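We emphasize that the prediction below concerns an isolated chain of 208 residues; any contacts that depend on oligomerization or on bound cofactors are therefore not represented. The input was used exactly as deposited, without trimming of termini.
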Amino acid sequence: GAELHIGRIRVRVSNKKTKSKAAGKGPSPIVAIGGLAIVGAAAWMLLRPTAIEVPTSEGLQPPDLFEALDGTCSGDDGTPAERAEQAEYNGHVTGDRYQYAPGDGVEAVRYYMVAATCLREAGRETDAAEVDRFREELINTINADYAGLRLHLEHSMSVENWSDAVRDSERLVGLVSHLSEDPYAAWLGQTLRISRAQQAEQEAAAER
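Result of the prediction step, given as a token string:
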């Protein structure tokens, strides 16, 4: 007879009559139907898509985004006042891109730190204090977004809203891109990959 392969299951179909203790009687239709049902159920268990488990963030402490930034006034490109002017300009430019590129917001904070340090080295304390205000305002904005995104990501995953989970994790990954060795940053990267896979599976299922 013929063989039917379903995943790792092999089913042989034969037209030979089976011997029965009672002459002239074949297998019970109920038994035959039950056998097919068992084979079908086993095949479904083997062939169905395997659910992707999202790793837990329990025990992982979200890192401070700004603690590791280097704000020293170093370099050979001009006087401290000239370096301050360039750093402040860079801070304004990169800060304007924050809504589209989250990592640029963190980089803008670093530029403001450098600018303030250089201004103080140049003896311009009033100007340095003004740059500090720019920096603090941007830090407050980013930290508020950082906290809100983490909460929204957890909610999106809990209700399996994978499109929102992808959006949230993408922005969070951008914010921690300078902390690649941090465990929480690594978790975010893994969560983003899994969320994208889950989103693709969800969209494919909706089209079927």
